[in-house]
Structure formats: structure tokens, C-alpha cells
Design goal:
It is a single chain. The protein is mainly α. The protein contains 3 helices and no strands. It has one domain (8-74). The protein has helices at residues 8-35, 45-57, 66-74. The N and C termini lie far apart (32 Å).
């Protein structure tokens, strides 16, 4: 039996609030880092990976597999 993907509207209806919450948490983390001594963590790979992940999320719609790209980035 082949499963078909959910319609886009249904995906947004189901997951929008969770995604919004998670993005707000990332933004808050970056705000806290920026309020501290940013130069102390400028070379920290974790911060660099978070910023790279944001670029992946912001990539054009025709770039498939964003989740896979993030998994590779964080592995």
C-alpha cells in the first residue's frame, strides 16, 4: 500500500504552531548568545552549524531534502 503525502494546507494546519515555537526558541537562543560575549564563541562549531542550518532552511523551495541536509550538518 502506497501512502500519499498530506496536502500542503493540512501540513500547515497540523504543524505550524509547533514549528513556530521551535523557531522562536532558536531565535531566543541566538539573542542570548548575542547579548553575551559573542567573540568568545565566534569560532564555536555549534554556533556555526546553527547559522548554517538557518541558511539551509532559507534555501529556495526547489532545494529538496532540507531535513536530510540538516541531519548531515549536525552529524
Amino acid at each position: 500500500m502506497k501512502l500519499s503525502p498530506l496536502p500542503s494546507k493540512q501540513v500547515l494546519d497540523l504543524y505550524y504552531l509547533d514549528a513556530r515555537c521551535q523557531l522562536l526558541e532558536v531565535a531566543a537562543l541566538l539573542d542570548r548568545v548575542d547579548r553575551g560575549n559573542v567573540s568568545a564563541v565566534a569560532d564555536d562549531g555549534r554556533l556555526q552549524r546553527l547559522r548554517a542550518a538557518i541558511n539551509v532552511l532559507n534555501s529556495p523551495q526547489d532545494q529538496p531534502n532540507r531535513a536530510e541536509q540538516l541531519l548531515n550538518l549536525f552529524s
